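Lab manual, section 2.4: Encoding a predicted structure.

Procedure: take the sequence of the chain (315 residues), apply the prediction step described in section 2.3, and record the output as structure tokens. A sample record is shown.
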Amino acid sequence: MNDDYLWDGTGEPDAEVQHLETLLGRYRSAAPIPDFRRVVVMRRDPLWPLAAAAALLIGIALGGWYFYTAPNRWRATEALGIAVVPHSILRAGDVVRTGQGSVRLQSSAVGTIDVGANTTVRLIENRSKRHRLALASGTIHAKTTSQPGVFVIDTPKARAIDLGCEYTLTIAPGGGGALRVIAGWVDLTHGYEQSLVPQGASAVITQDGELTVPVFDDAGPAFHAAIQNHDMTAILRLARTRDAFTLLNLFRDATPDERMLLYDRLNQLVPAPASITRDGVRYWSPSSTELWWRPVITATGLQAIKKKKGAFDGL
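Recorded output:
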């Protein structure tokens, strides 16, 4: 103990205190008393908040790196039921197979693809201006925000090119299938054959790879059957003004005599521009009815197509 603290305030050391100090002296530590003020100062060292902040930033960076997905990559964000996904981040060549479950694939550059049950999809390309998947069989539901022509789905018989839209595409094991467009447009192609399918319409891919013309989903069952059977008499009789879009698409596959009948019925529903004559469509080429597209689309109530350059130019 320090004698400075054994004081009774009278100017003389207290005898009882001195006696107590003598009894306790054997327990006196030989080492000096630590300077606890220095310990307090060390705890207030200005560097420890910086170290803590650095550790926090490193943690945030590592977490961000783990969860970050580059814009052109596809991430499996959700898997329900039985599904085989090789990685959470897909690479070109990866195959996604679902059993009774489903998988959601997402890319900030394209949008969201829901892969339904019993479906096989392979990622082929994921470049900045080209994302291509191959749908071998099953069903996908695509909802995209990318520019027209960026997102493409290959099937065994046809190719679906997204033109800024939402759609479902189902492919049967034999390669045939059906496309249903919920919003926007899809360019369905097979070789040189093309079917531009608008919102609210569907088209069929046959087992031979042929493409039906687009038909609006709200058309009656009899009209759908007539299109499937190429029953021109029933088609012309059942067509509504809204079905003018389907009639205009039928010119490509019609015989010269059928084109005369198509012209007459379509002209009743949506009058032809003055430059398009009845005789002029008998031996049809795409330019023969090109100027009819704008009034037909307007009468049908469709929105202007978000298109690749050259598709429906001027609409």
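Check your result against the sample. The CA atoms of residues 161 and 296 lie 23 Å apart.
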